[in-house]
Structures are given as C-alpha cells and as structure tokens.
Task: structure prediction
Amino acid sequence: MVRTEEMLLNVGPQHPSTHGVFRLVVKIDGEIIQEATPVIGYLHRGTEKLAEDLQYTQIIPYTDRMDYLSAMTNNYVICHAVETLMGLEVPEKAEYLRVMAMELGRIASHLVWFGTYLLDIGATSPFLFAFREREAIINLLNELSGARLTFNYMRVGGVKWDAPEGWIDKVREFIPYMRKELEGYHDLVTGNEIFLNRVKGVGTYTKEDALQYSLSGANLRCTGVNYDLRKEEPYSIYDRFDFDVPTEETGDAFARYQVRMAEMEESLKILEQAVEQFPEEGNILGKVPRVIRPPEGEVYVRIESPRGEIGCYIASDGQKEPYRLKFRRPSFYNLQILPKLLKGENMANLVVILGGIDIVLGEVDG
Amino acid sequence: MKGLAKGLTYTLKNMTREKATYHYPEEPLPLPDRFRGIQKFYPEKCIVCNQCVNICPTDCITLTGKKHPDPERKGRIIETYNINFEICILCDLCTEVCPTEAIVMTNNFELAEYSRDEFFKDLQWLDENDTNIRKEN
Result:
C-alpha cells in the first residue's frame, strides 16, 4: 500500500521567483497546495519609524527605497502630502515634470513586471527585450534626476532640477519607439499558445473578493472594477489629460497581464500630451519656506502607483519632523489574497499566481 | 502554432539590431552630467556652517572646524571632514544645501574596497577626488 503524507515546503526567502526576500511556507499534498503562509519582514527597514526623526526633505530619499521600481510615485506621495498639509502651490512646470517622470516610471515598472513574469513562467527572451527598453527609460530619468533608480527628484513644492536641454525631445522620440516595441511584445508573447495555456483561468478571483481584500491597481481592474485614482480623484494635473482606464472582466492572470500591457499604452498617451503641453517658461519650485514646518494637523493623500493605491498619512505637531508617518503600501495589501488564491492550486502555478500579483518586497516590508 | 511563429519572427528580427550592452570595464560608462557620484570637497571654500551634517538623512558626514589662523580674519575654517561611504546613500542633499558649493558631486561611482574601514573617506581623499566634477550644482 502506498502511503502519502503532507509535506511542508519553504519557497524562499532566497528564491528567484519571489523577486526579493520573501518566504512562502506551503503545505503540499503531492503536487497540490493545501495551505500557503507568506512570511514577510526580511526587508523591513522601519521607514515609518525612521521618518519620525527626519525632516520632511530628508524623508524623500527613504521613500525611493520602498517601491524601488517606481520611486517617482513614492517621491510624489510624500511631497503631495506635505504640500496638502501646508497648502502650498506647485508651479505648473514642476507638475508637468512630475507627471512625465511618474509616467515614465510606470512604464519602466510594468516592463520589469512583464520581463520577470515571463522569466518566471519560463520564457527568457522577453526579459531581455523588456530590460532593453527599460534601460532607455532609466537613461532618461538618469539625465533628469542624476540617479538610475533612487531618484530623490521631487521636493516639497516642486522638483529639484529643470529638464536638461533636449530632454523633452528625447521623451518625444521615445514615445513612438516604445509603441512599436509594445506591438512587438504582443507579437512575441500575447499570441503565444504556451503562454496562454499557462495563464488563462489561473489565479481567478471575483470582483467581490478583490474589494474585500482591498486590492488596488491592476489587481483590482482585472476583475472589471473601473477604479483608477488618476480618474477618480485627479491629483497633480491628471485632469488635463485624455486617457482610458483599461479593465478586464475575467480576473485571472491573463487579465492582469492584459491590463498592465494596456496601461503602458495609456501612459504613453499621457506622456504624449504632457510633452505637447509642456511649458518652456516657469519656475520649478514654488514659494517654500526654508525650513518646512507644516501646521499642526493630519492629512492623508493617495495616488495611483503602478502597483495600486499608495497613500501617505502624516500627523504633524507643528515641528520640523512628522509626529507620525504612515504609508499605505499597495504591494502589502495586494499580497494578502495570495493564500486564498494558492489553496488547491498546482505547485507549478505558484509562480504564475505570485508573479501576477506584482509585488515589490521593499514595499511589502516597508 | 501561429502565435509561436509570430514570436520567433520578432526574435529573429532582433538578432540584427544594435547591441544594447556596453563594454563597461574596458570602456568608461557614458553618464549624464547630473549623475550623482562620490563627492568632491573643497576645503578652502568651506565655512564650517554644518548644514551638510544637519541635512544628511543617514548622518554619514562628520566635520570639525577651527579658528582662522590669521587673527585679523573672522570665521572658522575646516579641520577634519569625513564621509562614511558605508552608509552614504548619495542622495545629493549635502551639495544642495551647501551655500558656498564647497561640496559637489562628481560622476565617479566606483566604490569598491578590500576592507570596510576604507569606506571612511577623509578630507584629503575627498579633496583629491577631482575628476569628472559635475558642472551644475
């Protein structure tokens, strides 16, 4: 008689498909996952606690290191929170530079997701192509801010640098190039039968589940909920741009793929309009006091990062440093649905489901 | 099968494209002027105002000053200036607050040493780090 027993298996903390230091304890019966428990905290640096001893400008480089694939949105959320609390006006030119930087960051972030996701599934070449295009974006952002990933570009009330000479033209040239490459990606991957068999109907959840788990970003929109903070609560100057919010109905891994691919196209649309409307003249930093001392009170702002709703809560007691700072980190919230999705799935689908959620461990652990 | 063939065509097309990689260690990496690398320090410009120490998010800068040797002149001059590159995150805030541009960024980024102690760079080392200095500061 053959006896079978359940086995506990550690996936990670050092595992290529977890994209960071993330451990997943899975209880498997043969090939079928009975239970999965995520273990997080390997990358916890205590950003929120550290921020209580830092001036507001000093917190900005720390936010770069949370979601390191789209640091511009993190820069923006802290600056936006302080500006809202102080009632500061941001010059128009600075807003355009911010939006362009954020949208470039969104494309770069989705490209990393696209490349690594397919690498997880077993396709090597899309990874190389995606990183080639991402390199072009990183070079653009490097020219603008002076760093490749940890930009530290935005300041309370504006941005640090004006666009260097010829930068806007480079962005303008990049848009058609990226459109063409995106078409190439669709040729390469979207129609591929092996890929479709691997992702269609895998990791499906309903609209109700997504809302109950407070998922946001592409993880929410893949179930048919049309919710994008750039449309719902337009911050910065997003109300000036014409773009769509891509949604899918099925809620499986393939829907999430389609939403993210379509989002890149929408970001290119925003970039195109921003480049056209970009004001040549104007300040890049508003009227900001030398020492930033917001009034007593609290504020919560939220914006749409590539991974979902990123929020920043500040409780200020009128000092140079915040009394309490809290980030709503979308990856952390999106990860919560993982045990539910993995239950009863095949072991081989683990990486497909985990990759589809698109987590960044720097953000999960904070 | 159609999808597979389409994908293969894309891959084949890319074989003839320009190479995306650099011959990095043999040839220097092209970097934009704004790139934030290891700082260069001008001791003669420093007025010991301590602003860089105060703004540093990781507290990696330490400095001491002394009275100007010429009793006729007021103010202080720099005596020691150290940056600990084990914890410096090259965030650019020190160069941003410096009123006299005594500390500026360079495009040098190669920071590999054989021991951790060697990451502790002193005034002389930072003064001698004078290649590829950033034009805009």
Notes: Chain A is about 50% helix and 15% strand. The beta strands of chain A are 7-11, 14-15, 20-21, 23-29, 32-39, 154-155, 158-159, 297-305, 308-316, 324-328. Chain A touches chain B through 33 residues (CB under 8 Å).
